[in-house]
User: What shape does this take?
Amino acid sequence: MSQQPPGPPEHKRSRREQARTAGLVVLAVLITLFAVLNLDSVKVNWIFGTGEAPLIIVIVVSVLVGIVLTYLVDRRASKRR
Assistant: This one.
């Protein structure tokens, strides 16, 4: 007779949790592929000069600027209401 030592109870993940994890893994793979495919160096005209930067950096900076501007405009509009 072999008895197993008491351990932590098994945690079964729900289908929703499994689907969410799978979706996040797929999204991470797509973002990684997107970044790897956009490593070419491009000429960029920044506000304070010009230079060369990897295309993925230009894309990420553009997305972040868009997010910040959208947040600021939305916040300002909600104050007026």
The mean pLDDT is 87. The first strand starts at residue 41 and ends at 46.
